[in-house]
Design brief:
This protein is mostly beta strands. 14% of the residues lie in helices and 35% in strands. Strand 10 (203-208) and strand 11 form a beta hairpin.
Length: 556
């Protein structure tokens, strides 16, 4: 299967080289691809040592998307995802006239939907299928929203206010203890609090023209739409305008410190979890007030007018995660923080959020011999013997790498009932940066940016019948070329994680760094899922074992 796909990719690479022949970087994508009768195509496999490394609590502020809900996974335990966000003012308000009355306070937040499954009905309405939601469909949960009492600073005073303030996944207790006492989503409709669920139905609003009495219907895609306490926002927002609390965002964010979203189980429901873009959410306060005006003739009139104040769910945010391993995920919970760095672990547990990374070392670590600068055989030199032999071939004919891949086999039995991450990401673990193959990949996807970097790959490959994941493959051709051709290149450890967005390469700090880990990719913190892969250890069946596969040509 991989041989067939290899020849197809050779054609793709050749095309890329042609299109980018004026650019040296892109030439490197297809460099050393040599054909002709003087060369033979070969394949060789090399060892890969891999072990598990847990992150512990990790930085989780200002993520592009955040989980909200409760998700139970038989392999990785149960995660409750809460959330805290500041609010900001798109328009400042300095004056409210007399006799204000709040008509409504509504929080709206769109859900992700799958466009390919949206159906349009004859009356113009639509039937949607929610995307990026995990667990039982329409599972009920208890959602409680409070005013936050925790002030989220922009900058860290410990850095002299030169660095962004960091907030971490394990700070839920701090935010929960400082929340205000009043429940804001206090509607008598239990679907807005005690029995909340992520509803895939669109919102329908029917209005009647006051003059013609003609009714019109507006349809809004699925999303959270909650009625919040009018009395509370009358006191905390409307009544605070004239004292200058809404005159600037700096003042407002210190006065009203945001919202805290708390998720709990509802009855016997297991709950579910959705990925949300909270920055697309807002609170709309509609109120009436008396507008007093005086004409030039000294006639004073009072008019009842309608006003609106909007509060955006932007500003500083933090994803707050509680992990529970009492009923599931015992094997993962029992894993040491750092796996077997000498012999490797049998299986690699990749887990997003407050999770775990797989650390890989290419080539068998055995080092019994070495070569000096002249290629003369010496004793151990701190370089894998496998890599040494590639750099110093006995016949003097150094191979030309056409393609190099890491193919990861999924533990299908363990993952049979779990949601599977759609993509994994390989990076330079030592330096916390992308590999050269990632940087040189020019492919993009305008309709779904998360599927860009297709040549670098890492996307799940599924069985056609079961629709379950079988493998992930990541291409590291240039990484291997550099290691072989440049003896000064260091064979650095590589990190492997689940990713929510392949385009995000920044790293986030772990709360308690140690000698083994200090940071992990931000996009992994965003992803709530996990997967289990077979490692390259000798105890793993050969057909499932992780290997470095190199396709190469060599002069006869």
């Amino acid at each position: 299967m991989y041989n067939n796909s290899f020849f197809k990719k050779i054609l793709i690479v050749a095309t890329v080289v042609f299109l980018y022949s004026c650019d040296k970087d892109y030439n490197e994508v297809g460099g050393d691809l040599i054909g002709g009768n003087n060369f033979d195509l070969n394949k060789a496999s090399y060892g890969v040592l891999g072990y598990n490394q847990k992150t512990g609590p990790i930085q989780s502020n200002n993520l592009e998307v955040n989980p909200l809900g409760i998700y139970s996974n038989s392999n990785f335990g149960e995660t409750t995802a809460n959330f805290n966000t500041q609010l900001t003012l798109p328009v400042f308000t300095t004056v409210v006239s007399s006799n204000p009355y709040v008509e409504s306070v509504v929080l709206t937040l769109p859900y992700y939907t799958d466009p390919s499954q949206t159906k349009v009905n004859a009356d113009g309405s639509r039937a949607y299928v929610l995307d990026s939601i995990y667990g039982v469909e329409k599972a009920k949960m208890k959602l409680s929203i409070y005013e936050s009492g925790y002030f989220m600073r922009d900058s860290d005073p410990d850095s002299g206010f030169q660095q962004q303030q960091k907030y971490f996944t394990d700070q839920n207790t701090e935010f929960n203890n400082l929340k205000k006492a009043t429940l804001l989503n206090d509607s008598s409709d239990k679907s807005q609090n005690e029995e909340f669920f992520f509803n895939p139905e669109e919102h329908v609003v029917v209005t009647t023209d006051s003059i013609t009495n003609v009714k019109s219907t507006a349809y809004t895609p699925p999303g959270m739409k909650l009625n919040l306490s009018r009395d509370y926002f009358k006191t905390r927002i409307i009544d605070a305008v004239n004292s200058g609390k809404l005159a600037s965002n700096d003042v407002f964010k210190n006065y009203f410190r945001g919202l805290y979203f708390k998720m709990e189980k509802s009855g016997s429901s297991a709950g579910n979890l959705a990925m949300l873009n909270f920055r697309a959410g807002k609170i709309t306060i509609k109120y009436n007030e008396d507008l007093v005006s005086t004409t030039a003739a000294g006639i004073t009139t009072t008019t009842r007018v309608k006003k609106t104040i909007e509060l955006n769910l932007t500003g500083n945010t933090v994803s707050l995660l509680n992990n529970d391993f009492t009923t599931s995920g015992a094997a993962y919970a029992a894993l040491p923080s750092t796996g077997n760095r000498t012999d490797g672990d049998d299986k690699l547990f990749l887990r997003g959020g407050e999770g775990s990374v797989a650390v890989l070392q290419l080539f068998d670590p055995k080092d019994l011999k070495g070569y000096d600068a002249n290629g003369v055989l010496t004793g151990p030199n701190g370089v894998s013997d496998e890599l040494d032999d590639l750099r110093n071939p006995a016949d003097g004919k150094k191979l030309l790498v056409n393609e190099a891949n890491l193919v990861f086999h999924i533990d299908a039995d363990a993952m049979s009932s779990s949601n599977e991450p759609q993509r994994i990401y390989l990076y330079d673990f030592k330096n916390s940066r992308p590999l050269v193959d990632y940087s040189l990949d020019p492919t993009s996807n305008s309709t779904n940016p998360k599927k860009s970097k297709a040549f670098f790959d890492g996307m799940i490959k599924k069985d056609a019948t079961s629709k379950r994941g079988v493998t992930y493959k990541i291409r590291i051709t240039n990484q291997i070329r550099n290691l072989i051709n440049n003896k000064d290149s260091t064979n650095v450890s590589l990190g492997l994680v689940v990713t929510e967005d392949i385009g995000i390469i920044a790293s986030y700090k772990v709360k308690t760094p140690n000698a083994f880990i200090s940071q992990a990719p931000k996009a992994s913190v965003m992803n709530p899922l996990g997967t289990i892969l077979y490692s390259g250890k000798s105890t793993v069946p050969v057909e499932k074992r992780l290997k470095l596969e190199i396709y190469y040509t060599k002069p006869n």
